[in-house]
Here is the input.
Amino acid sequence: MRLRSAKAGKMSSLKPASGPEIQLYESRKEVFPKAVDGFYRRLKWGIMAVTLAIYYITPWIRWDRGPHAPDQAVLVDLANRRFYMFNIEIWPHEFYYVAGLLVMAGIGLFLVTSAVGRAWCGYACPQTVWTDLFQHVERFVDGDRNAQFRLKDAPWGPQKIFKRLTKWSIWLFIAFWTGGAWIMYFADAPTLTVDFWTGQAAPVAYATVGILTAITFIFGGFMREQVCVYMCPWPRIQTAMMDEKSLLVTYKDWRGEKRGSVKKAKANPGEFGDCIDCNQCVAVCPTGIDIREGPQIGCITCALCIDACDKVMEQVGRPRGLIDYITADDAEAEAKGEETPPTWKTLLRPRTLVYFGVWAAIGLAMLFTLGNRTRLDIAVQHDRNPVYVQLASGEIRNSYTAKIRNMESRPREVEIAISGLEGATLWAGGTSRPEAQTRLTTQVAADSVAKVRLFVAGPRQGGKQAYSMSVRGTDEDAATDSEELFFERPGE
Amino acid sequence: MADNQRIDEPTGTQTVGHEWDGIEELDTPMPRWWLWTLYATIIWGIVYVILYPAWPLVNSATEGVLGWSSRGDLQQELAARDKELEPIRQALVSTDIRKLNGSPELMQAAIEGGRSAFKVHCVQCHGTGADGIRPGSGYPNLNDDEWLWGGDLEAIEYTLVHGIRNPDHSETRFSQMPAFGRDGILSGAEISDLVSYVRVISGEEKQSASATRGAALYQNNCAVCHGADGTGDRTQGAPNLTDAISLYGLDRASLTNTITNSRYGVMPRWGHRLDPATIRMLAAYVHSLGGGETLPALEEVSEATQQEAADETAVGEGGEDVQS
Here is the structure.
């Protein structure tokens, strides 16, 4: 609470009946995680490389869809309301596929959480990945944990200013490219890049880059673990998702306690546990917690403390795994000295299998329906006012507005036909009425909806009558779609 | 409450003093940056109050230094939209209306514009569906294929500009049917015979002695305007009596009333109230409702321009409005 003035301290504090002064507000305890190497650190490097590569490279993958569609493999074309993902094209009315993907993502998180706990938080969450990257930059510029401590307490001088400016510049550079990559998903990436640097891109592109740059800079550089602890709902939800069979980063207190240095343990054999109280697990923790206090909201299960502890245990010649991934059940059994089942058995329990089954079923169902989609669609709206028109010839005319949806990326000629209405004639708005005709052809531009005004005339007698209107592609893909309609007549 | 406050052993945090069934609430301190966000919102609030309308007064609110208002916003948007549409209106006015059919995009724009204008100026008489409100109401149904004064774009525009039977205007469409009964030209029995005849030629009744008598009366009194065969004459707005459509109804009572008292339907002229582009849009809209006619002589012109327009728009087809 160094920043607090005496007066402010008084205003924002309560004096309890006994004990220390209680603060209403708490300054952030800065975290300076120490560099560490080990299996989980390397795993994290790998996952960081893969996730960042996916994020930055995806918009630049090209995908040939012919002359009438964009050639970007993944494109969220908000302006034209199309979503492209490799050879899948989604129209707004098919948004349930995106909803399905979100449901899969949700259930996928359930699956991962119930099996391996907060693995998402520890390895794949953008907040974790970018914070990890920023902390690496920090160590690169300022030095490791102890050097960072010293620099923090050092008075502001040329060296500190230089180091701070260097660090923040690198952070800003990374943050800018983070925002810059994001907008590439929403427009043709090469074109947008040129437009962006020549000042011709849409204002929303600059605003998005600006906002995302600021968020990345602040969240990755300064907010860090506070995003996880105070802002993110997911740690809370995950607490409810986990059970006694989920893998947790656990300090094996039955093995570690009572803590004591190597020297003390040598002096008093049998009195101390394996933990030598070297604090390495705390030093490497990116959220600044002490895992030995047990499972807590601040633990994102990145397992860097496992790497740190294993290294120390090796050095002092004690068995590895004082801190380890272990389920709550196994921890209990192990503490009692019982045998624990192998981890894969714990992973393949009914709960995870059901999650996986549901997840896979949704995925397969979506793939199946994607493969069976028709890319031609007709929607007909009957004129409501008036519902029918008396013609001079004595016939009755009904008027319709049809929307023909051509979801293929090529212009098509389609045939519209009516059936089930005796003596009826069909013609399109803007053309003269033909003698007798029940089908007509019209052109629909590539990947678009054509609005066609349609007139159907039929004999006056017969009352309200059901019939159908259909559309059929006349090219190699003779997809069809039809709609049931009513022919309205007076007097019934 | 304060009596129960204590320091929680494992976390070292003060409790708030609530306890239920052994569960206590920790009074974890808020992060300090959270406080900063509160200050930031306060500053934001003050800036907003200065920049934008905020404090309600008796009749209005403080204006704010930016002078923003939602009404002003709307006006700007409308002005911008008007500016956007100006080229279309220009093109509409400068295009020969007989060739309008040949450029589908301009025609479509005109129809949509007319649809809006119709709702403002025309629905009062013709109804929201342009169907004349109900059959026999005296207001023509504009959806059908029967026209008193002509149903091609040019004729419809003329009717719109000059109106029908406007007493203050020399170019207005004008005709008047005599009130055969009221003025004593025909007797009640004769009118009844005429009614029978008209109902026969329009297919409402079977041939009868009365209708035969009516046929002779028709040739003497009506054929000069309605034609010997009863198909009417558009140059004077004389309706076709042989088809299934009638402005005032084909039942005996309505026809008797028509022949006895005659009819004198008036449509206001719009040439001095609306600008030429709007009138052209209205003509295009009415023409599009299903009964629009193309004059045979003009079909060639129309086809030629259609070809022209097709060549011109062949490139621009990809930019067609896409609705989903």
Q: What stands out?
A: DSSP finds 18 helices and 17 strands in chain A.
